[in-house]
Specification:
- The complex is a heterodimer of chains A (467) and B (248).
- By secondary structure, chain A is α/β, with parallel strands linked by helices.
- In chain A, the strands form three sheets. Chain A has a six-stranded parallel sheet, sandwiched between helices. In chain A, strands 8-5-6-9 form a four-stranded mixed sheet, sandwiched between helices.
- The longest helix of chain A has 19 residues.
- Chain B is α/β, with parallel strands linked by helices and 248 residues long.
- Chain B has two domains: 116 residues, no CATH class; 106 residues, Rossmann fold.
- Chain B has 13 helices and eight strands.
- In chain B, strand 7, helix 12 and strand 8 form a beta-alpha-beta unit.
- Classes of the chains: A alpha/beta (467), B alpha/beta (248).
- Chains A and B meet through helix 13, helix 15, helix 16, helix 17 and helix 18 of A and helix 1, helix 2, helix 3, helix 4 and helix 8 of B.
């Protein structure tokens, strides 16, 4: 099973997470609406899409250029075909340096490859330093949102955790005290760490510069204090040049948080030089992990994703089931699209069903990925090899009947008239309390409308005859 | 555009479950000076199979739409935005070869009812009256395929503002999907119902006594849930309120 897939998807509303999630989503919605008023949003999206499309279309040459420039700047580049190779590289680099203490910046790619478990298995202590990630790690939990890993938890749960850690009580409303506790713990970890491990938001090929955005300052510490910096990046995060970078560095926080700029943006070109402070070694681990295979397919645009998390907050299904409901590293609409594409072998065919196809994700996406169309196409792809037999037979019969006007109208007459005795036995004011298969799932929670004994087709005919 | 000949695309759910919505659509279009034709060989646009992962079966049924309307002229109008989204958005992507040109030309002249009235006929309001005495508070539910898919939000609101006997309230998070989603409502029934509850609860909190939309799928889902919970909310298709004398 792929590291992307953690447990079977649950697909049920989770009342324990929805209040926190709904608060966060509402905040995101307000901020974003506000920020969108300040820029020409549609023009910005189109430009962002073009920058990402160019990068993915020319991926091999841009990766080659990036690799050369990183090397020129004094960094080392390691290629990983899959999760296992990526973890191996990170563990080997730590071992060769004799390092056992690491600090980690937030990175979904590290979640994707299961890096935490790999480091632990190798006896390397890696502490998450993003506040949300720190909380999730300390609780033995896992992130439920691309950008807001602890969005499913309440302040009360965090206060309890910190009280257990420190042996003194915390007021859940006293955010300053909570943050101050985490900061004090983390400062010691930063000072002791030999290795800093981070993700990469985008890598500028023309100069070999790794760009990382953040809100908390932990990335700056993780990439400045330890003597080794290991950056882990999915191949597709490369872009051609600084012109593109300048736009995406604004677009990412705008889409993610409705802010015109991230609190802090780090640009890292090689290790420290000429007696500067900072890491003496820089390693860039480039993960393929199934990404190259998506290029040139109808799903290529999924690689344009900049992991802003906007489609998660916008999605009404994510809103009900929460990130953990998907059972995967990447949740929400983009997770339902990329997980089946990346998870070779693992059974993820159910994920594209985690959508009502409303299209709110497409509207939210800053790089215009047609997520709804891709979800539809993935449903079809899943059925190519393995369609549920009963359902496939129903749709085949449906297509036969409804592709001929006479048999279509016969179906309508049967539903409305021939089954009338059945309907009227069960109906109240034209609504059914219980419906037969395949609609029984409907009536578990909803009354069902009774088919009309005189469909529109029949009414039109009698109107014509009567006229 | 004046007194055009309009091809009614009634859609299968309206045909089978809400035939009176089809009749009211005809009556309204005629009242606005249109001549309404109804190609009787139409069945369904094929969307249920496409969104359920059966594109081959979808095309077999979509072919019927092409055959039914290809020989007609003038605008094709439907009282159901989601089916129009199928024709306008998906047909050009589904069809290749010589059928592609037919699909594209049909897509270009297929409209949902509110946009057709407001933009093509140039009628921002057409009157209408909410039935019964007093003033009823109504919440408009933008069907997602119209809002997000076709980018239409203003036309139905414009028509609704012209209806007497009702006042429009705006629930919080009115852009959220109601949870119908075709076969999604059966596949993830619990999630679908939870989404309906959020929609219904926010409508009630806003003081709404009725929900109005143009998607009979959403209407069936929301009314079915409201009835099951015994909520004091009525549910109407927009065209129900556009009748001049307020009969329902």
């Amino acid at each position: 099973m792929s590291g992307l897939v953690i447990e079977p998807p649950r697909g049920r509303p989770d009342p324990a997470v929805t209040p926190n999630l709904h608060r966060a989503a509402a905040h995101w919605g307000t901020q974003r609406a506000d920020a969108r008023g300040r820029v020409d949003w549609e023009a910005w999206r189109e430009l962002a899409r073009q920058i990402r499309a160019d990068a993915v279309r020319h991926l091999p040459e841009l990766i080659e250029l990036l690799e050369a420039r990183v090397a020129t700047a004094g960094g080392h580049v390691h290629h990983a075909r899959n999760a296992e190779e990526a973890c191996d590289h990170v563990v080997r680099i730590c071992r060769e340096a004799g390092a056992t203490r690491a600090v980690k910046g937030k990175s979904m790619t590290s979640e994707e490859i299961g890096l935490g478990a790999a480091l632990q298995g190798a006896g390397i202590e890696a502490v998450e330093t993003d506040l949300g990630e720190y909380i999730v790690q300390a609780m033995g939990d896992r992130p439920s949102h691309i950008l807001a890993p602890a969005v499913h938890l309440s302040a009360g749960q965090v206060a309890n955790l910190f009280a257990r850690e420190s042996g003194r009580p915390f007021d859940p409303d006293d955010t300053a005290a909570l943050v101050s506790h985490a900061r004090a713990v983390l400062r010691q970890r930063f000072l002791a760490a030999e290795v800093g491990i981070t993700g990469v938001n985008l890598a500028v090929a023309e100069t070999g510069t790794l760009t990382i955005v953040e809100s908390e300052g932990n990335i700056r510490l993780a990439t400045a204090l330890p003597r080794i910096h290991i950056a882990l990046m999915g191949l597709e995060k490369v872009i051609r040049d600084w012109e593109g970078a300048a736009h995406l560095i604004q677009m990412l926080p705008l889409a993610a948080q409705g802010k015109m700029a991230a609190a802090s943006t780090s640009f890292i070109t090689g290790p420290a030089r000429d007696g500067d402070d900072g890491p003496h070694e820089l390693h860039l681990v480039l993960l393929d992990g199934g990404r190259s295979a998506i290029r040139g397919t109808p799903f290529e645009e999924a690689l344009h994703c900049i992991r802003c998390g906007a489609c998660l907050y916008a999605c009404p299904v994510y809103r009900q089931v929460g990130g953990h409901g998907y059972g995967t590293t990447y949740s929400g609409p983009i997770g339902a699209v990329i997980t089946p594409l990346l998870a070779q072998g693992a059974d993820t065919d159910d994920l594209p069903w985690y959508s009502s196809l409303c299209g709110a994700c497409v509207e939210a996406c800053p790089v215009k990925i047609p997520l709804d169309d891709q979800l539809v196409a993935l449903r079809a792809r899943a059925h190519e090899d393995d369609a549920p037999r009963g359902e496939a037979a129903l749709f085949a019969a449906w297509a036969r009947l409804w592709s001929r006007p006479s048999s279509y109208r016969a179906t309508a007459a049967t539903a409305g008239r021939a089954l009338r005795p059945l309907w009227s036995a069960l109906a109240r004011d034209g609504w059914q309390h219980r419906a037969p298969f395949p609609f029984s799932g409907w009536t578990d929670g909803r009354d069902a409308r009774t088919p009309d004994p005189e469909p529109f087709h029949a009414r039109w005919r009698s109107r014509r005859v009567g006229a | 555009m004046h007194s055009p000949r309009v091809q009614l695309f009634v859609t299968c759910l309206v045909d089978l479950l809400y035939p009176e919505v089809g009749e009211r659509t005809v009556a309204l279009l005629e009242r606005l000076g249109c001549e309404v034709a109804f190609p009787t060989s139409q069945t369904c646009c094929g969307q249920p199979a496409l969104s359920s992962g059966y594109p081959r079966e979808s095309l077999i049924v979509a072919d019927r739409f092409l055959d039914a309307f290809a020989g007609t002229e003038g605008p094709i109008v439907a009282p159901f935005g989601s089916c129009v989204h199928m024709v306008r958005h998906h047909y050009p992507r589904l069809y290749a070869g010589e059928r592609a040109a037919v699909a594209a030309s049909l897509a270009a002249r297929t409209y949902e009812l509110p946009s057709f009235i407001v933009e093509q006929l140039g009628r921002p309001t057409v009157g209408g009256r909410y039935p019964g005495p007093g003033v009823t508070a109504v919440a408009y539910h933008h069907e997602c395929h119209m809002r997000y898919g076709l980018g239409v939000t203003e036309a139905p609101m414009s028509l609704l503002r012209g209806v007497a006997g009702c006042t429009i309230v705006e629930p919080v998070r009115s852009g959220l999907c109601c949870g119908f989603g075709g076969t999604f409502s059966l596949k993830l029934a619990d999630v679908s119902v939870a989404m309906a509850d959020e929609k219904l609860d926010s409508a009630l909190q806003a003081g709404a006594e009725a929900i109005v939309s143009t998607d009979v799928g959403c209407l069936m889902h929301l009314e079915g849930r409201a009835r099951r919970r015994g909520l004091p909310l009525r549910v109407h298709h927009l065209v129900d309120l556009l009748e001049p004398d307020g009969r329902l």
